[in-house]
Write a structure and sequence with these properties.
This is Sce7726 family protein. The chain is α/β, with parallel strands linked by helices. Helices cover about 45% and strands about 15% of the residues. A six-stranded mixed β-sheet has the order 1-4-5-6-7-8, sandwiched between helices.
């Protein structure tokens, strides 16, 4: 049996009887990012922090969408704070749940937040569409969530002279220009720079050839070019 088949069988077991967070992340990656968009124009974020909260999955295309996952194994203690944080940065915010807890979650989400259900058959069904939130985002929170190089690119686009001092001072140098932006303008600037985050050709080849069970894993992990190629070859090795 090739290793790729082992992963697929293990994933099928998880999907049937233990839908943990990875299963939800992988289905979002397959069905939303790869199913509806192109990696030429869209990006997936899986390690994106907003203040003290890490986004489960975010998709950046012409706009931004954040997905908070609540499995049957989770509680709702942090949900309100998580959604409030996501709403500082993202245009559309969704909670992704199973059918079992969808009704309970629907009672706990604010009006602009949407809900997606991972059905027993494996489809992602939109129970409630998210409303656009870009006009209510917070330029300060957007600023804090971006890399310094991305902040510099945005600043340069708005005519802010580059600053060559220490990193802490460099961030402060650009902060005032962010604070002068309208929320929708700051949000669009964020979308533009995040879509430029590089995906190497070797990673694209790995994602293309990886089994369905590993799409999110291959897309969210950063390796060297050699590392991507080693993984791609290993998947076809036989046990």
């Amino acid at each position: 049996m090739p290793i790729r088949a082992v992963y697929d069988e293990a994933y099928a077991g998880l999907f049937a009887g233990y839908r943990n967070e990875y299963v939800f992340k992988n289905e979002i990656t397959k069905r939303i990012l790869l199913g509806k968009h192109s990696l030429r124009t869209a990006r997936l974020l899986s390690e994106f922090w907003i203040k003290d909260v890490k986004v489960d999955v975010a998709v950046i295309n012409g706009t931004s969408s954040a997905y908070e996952i609540k499995t049957d194994l989770d509680d709702f203690d942090r949900l309100s704070r998580q959604l409030a944080r996501y709403s500082l940065v993202f245009d559309r915010v969704y909670v992704v749940t199973s059918e079992v807890i969808s009704d309970s979650v629907a009672k706990k989400i604010p009006g602009h937040v949407g809900q997606v259900v991972l059905t027993r058959k494996g489809s992602l069904s939109t129970r409630k569409e998210a409303l656009s939130n870009r006009g209510h985002t917070d330029p300060d929170a957007i600023f804090q969530s971006l890399r310094l190089s991305e902040i510099e690119d945005i600043g340069e686009a708005f005519g802010v002279q580059r600053y060559a001092g220490p990193n802490l001072h460099r961030r402060r140098h650009y902060l005032n220009s962010f604070r002068q932006m309208e929320p929708a303008q700051a949000h669009q600037s964020m979308v533009d720079v995040l879509r430029k985050r590089e995906i190497h050709g070797a990673q694209l080849e790995l994602i293309k050839g990886a089994p369905d069970s590993m799409k999110h894993l291959c897309l969210s992990r950063q390796l060297t070019v050699t590392g991507y190629r080693v993984v791609a070859e290993a998947l076809d090795a036989r046990l």
